[in-house]
Amino acid sequence: MDVINEFITGQAAALWVYPLLFVVCTVDGFFPPVPSETVLVTLASLSGSTGRPYLAAIIVIAAVGAILGDNIAYTIGRRAGTDRFRWMRSPKGKAAFAWARRGLDKRGAAVILTARYIPIGRIAVNMTAGATRYPRKKFVPLTILGGITWALYSSLMGRLVGGWFESQPLLGAVISVCVAVVLGIGIDHVLQRVKGGEVDIPRVSPPGNGTAPEAQEDNPGSARNA
To answer: Rounded to an integer, what distance in angstroms lies between the CA atom of residue 1 and that of residue 170?
Structure first.
């Protein structure tokens, strides 16, 4: 265990972890399998237990990557719709996009901010925002706010837990990730049980043609044909 801890401590101080974090957080914005939360929380935990990498640096890098990834997802949705790829047509993918369409119609700003904390949810919302022509001048500031708060939340949580295990960085990182997963599941569960709000997930599949009316405002009934 001591050998593993020494290895982790050494790798945490390596400069390559910063570009890796940026790439992971960016790609996670439009490609579901990439686990940005896991990487971010792990690095933040190591920061708390070993002093490296620098917490301020990983917060900034993660936020910038998240913002860029969310806007790439918006652009993909605007150009390709929401059924171009196989995973989009799966039952979970259809349910996620149906939730995104309904949420954006009801209260777009709240849904965009909330979805940043839900791995597949944020991709569905951001791609749907692009496909429905949700105004980019509204979308970009929301992704900036969401990216910053998400990076702060994930990093500070990892740092807090990691600080409790200064002599066991590996254990601290594992526990931090477990805490993040549990909280993420809890948030998703609560959101799905909200009734009559913008995050109520519908049980029907979205239209299969990948196009939808253009959203003008964040209020119900605000969509118009593109």
So the answer is: 9
pTM of the model: 0.68
Only one residue has tokens 């998703």, namely 188
Q: For helices 136-163 and 169-192, what crossing angle results, to 10°?
A: 140
pLDDT tens, 10-53? 677 788 889 989 999 999 999 877 778 888 888 888 887 778 89
State both tokens at 131.
Answer: 């496909």
Kindly give the residue spans of alpha helices, DSSP state H, lying in the chain.
Answer: 2-12, 17-27, 36-50, 55-80, 91-115, 119-131, 136-163, 169-192
Residue 36 amino acid letter: S
Tokens 């599941």 correspond to: 185
Structure tokens given for 211: 């196009």
Q: Where are the domains of the chain?
A: 2-224
Burial of 156 (0-12, 13-18, 19+ CB in 10 A): middle
> Using CB atoms within 10 A of its CB, is residue 186 exposed (0-12), middle (13-18) or buried (19+)?
exposed
Angle at 65 between CA 64 and CA 70, to 5 degrees: 100
